[in-house]
Amino acid sequence: MGVSAVEIVVIGGGVGGLAAALALALGGHRVQVLERAPRFAQGGPALRLAPNATAVLARLGLLDQVLDLGSRPRRAVLRDLGSGAELAELDLGAPLTARYGTPYVVVGRADLLSLLADACVDADVELRPGREATSVDQSSFASSVMGGAVVTCVDGWMYAADVVLAADGAQSAARALLGGGEPGGDGWAAYRGTVPVDVLAADEADDEVVAWTGPDAHFTRYPIRVGEAYEQVAVFRSHLYPLVGAASPGGAGQGPRSWALDSPSALDSSAALDWGGPEELDEAFSWATEPVRAAVRLLRTDRCWRMLDQVPLPLWADGRVALLGDAVHPMPAYLAQGACQAIEDADALAGALADCQGPHGVAAALAGYQARRAPRAFRVSRARQVWESGPLPRRPADDYAASDWLYAPSEPLTFCVPDPGHRYGPR
Prior knowledge:
With 427 residues, the protein is an alpha/beta fold. 27% of the residues lie in helices and 22% in strands. Helix 10 runs antiparallel to helix 11.
């Protein structure tokens, strides 16, 4: 059976939202994307894209451009945070590409978003910046009046569609519809920054992804541009969080810090109380190996990212509405799979809606999307590293048995490859 085009509104113009919009438009659907920011292609930390994501980008026709803009690390190394001893390694070069069919690449977030946005425009997706969604209504009244689920924006604009896909992060406007409470956390905080490659010690390679891991902290460094610049990320569990939790000024979200806690005595003061400050950062890595301590000193400390870490929602779709990306499965930082899993969601949505027979088939198609994606996303969200069963010393670097579960690409999308006579029609 062929696809019958449906009207789709995507809330959120991040990696997952734009990837889903592109895949669905190539599958013959009519798609528009609402993005709260004044423009698409916002900047941010670089993205590590493993083969499970680059396989989808290849099918979307974007991989060659991503490779032109990104870098190709030679290997990934897992080290002990305290001693610096190597625990395991993984070859990220030709053997990995040969095994999985597509490579591992690091690319700038703005670069990837720009590529996706341009491809969406070419596929006739309507991109609408400056549209912040505040609610989604799929009541029978809304459907009878507007002809579908209705998205309302903060400025009063309303959009109706057969399908609403919420890709607007862990504080999604649609998350409450599917039983999601306020996003929470477990006291993990992160600091990050970019440094030139010349800050590396003489014995440190400039083409490796290196993660130093400990019980309550880990530090990761990876090349944004091999031979030029590195991204560095320090993540640690705050000891203050159990005392102040989400009630503190920073709460469990992200944003600028307003630190006011300099000593335990400040607990009894009326000053603003917060967690995850620079003092805790220094304390968390005070026992780390010297290369890590030196790298931590180079981090910017004017912004703290408070990590969201919660189990994926049990319900991903309800009627005409479905969630994807962090809106339904916020990912911890351990695997660098946030963008990758959102791209997998886009793949799964395109596949689920490929044989949709018009608006009446939407609910069944979205239920199929949940059935396909939820078990895998749950597993990824709970795993702490690529080597899920623990560090595997003495394994060859090109032994991928322990990473197949994560990196093996999913089945291909079922949207058509356009031909000259019919740009975006179904197969």
